[in-house]
Design a protein that fits this description.
mainly alpha; about 75% helix
Length: about 300
């Protein structure tokens, strides 16, 4: 079995969302004056392993539940080694266990350094990672996938990384994480919106199925809009530096996406939304870092829309 096939089995293109969440936490920690490069790299590596394990476990249970099979939408948009038979199930399970072992090893080490709160974040992450598609309560099948993703890539990942880097449990990273959490949620929602007909056929209840087409399009539109509004509010109340408003450069991209979705849901609905999430996230991180640099030299940028 080639390493390339194993790599593709982890869905590596999705890791950009984890990189953005961890990077945002890192930029906030840097701004606070507490940044440990080794802890940052360990956390990033551990969370990417966590993401890979979650993706593979998701695929395993979708195959077990016969949701993923020959002809399923997911097999048309990406490689699926389990469905194609290119990877044997027991080997697949062993790699999932190995990845989770890496996660727990890193979390245990960091808990000795920072305290048991690290394990609390890890356990919460494990809950959403496992029960996203696993029995007996697959969250994805009960229209709870979107909220699970928002909480995981938002408050849990950003707040947990911030704690590892600073040793502080703070409301700041939890609130600041919301725009990224919402956009990652929108990635999943776009995927579920595209696959509505198939999901109905295999008896999965997703949020777009409950909302219906028109309300789903509005939900998607307002999700993207809310990410920008939250950043504007956080800048207005000085929780973020004005340079974070660099995210407005992605507004044309968001408008094009909404118009495209209104016309018809594209096959690339989720990767297109992920591209927006990546650009938004990188600009948000850059804005925080640039603002921190300017603050170091006592340079203040006025926020003109704040009276």
């Amino acid at each position: 079995m080639s390493l390339k096939m194993w790599f593709l089995a982890t869905r590596p293109w999705s890791f950009v969302m984890t990189i953005v969440s961890v990077g945002l936490a890192g930029s906030l920690a840097w701004r606070s004056g507490s940044f440990e490069p080794l802890h940052f790299l360990l956390t990033l590596f551990g969370l990417i392993a966590f993401h890979a394990a979650s993706n593979m476990l998701n695929d395993y249970y979708d195959v077990k539940h016969t949701v993923d099979r020959q002809g399923a939408p997911t097999t048309r948009y990406r490689p699926h080694p389990l469905v194609s038979g290119q990877i044997e199930i027991r080997s697949f399970q062993a790699v999932v266990v190995f990845l989770y072992a890496i996660v727990l090893s890193i979390a245990t080490y960091l808990s000795f350094v920072r305290g048991p709160i690290v394990l609390a974040f890890t356990v919460a992450g494990l809950f959403f990672s496992y029960f996203y598609t696993a029995d007996p309560v697959p969250l994805k099948h009960r229209a709870l996938g979107e909220i699970s993703v928002l909480l995981t890539w938002g408050p849990l990942m950003v707040g947990g990384t911030y704690f590892v880097l600073t040793g502080k449990v703070d409301v700041l990273p939890v609130i600041v994480s919301l725009p990224i959490g919402v956009l990652v949620m929108a990635v999943l929602f776009a995927n579920n919106l595209r696959d509505v007909d198939y999901d109905k056929a295999v008896n999965i209840t997703t949020l777009p199925i409950i909302l219906g087409k028109e309300r789903s399009l509005k939900f998607y539109q307002y999700s993207l809009l809310s990410a920008y509004l939250i950043v504007f509010v956080l800048v207005a109340i000085t929780m973020l530096p004005p340079t974070t408003l660099l995210v407005i450069l992605t507004i044309p991209n968001a408008i094009r996406l909404v118009r495209t979705f209104k016309h018809s849901i594209p096959d690339a609905a989720d990767p297109l939304t992920a591209q927006l999430t990546l650009r938004f996230g990188l600009l948000m991180i850059a804005g925080v870092l640039i603002g921190s640099f300017l603050e170091t030299f006592g340079i203040k940028i006025p926020v003109f829309f704040v009276s």
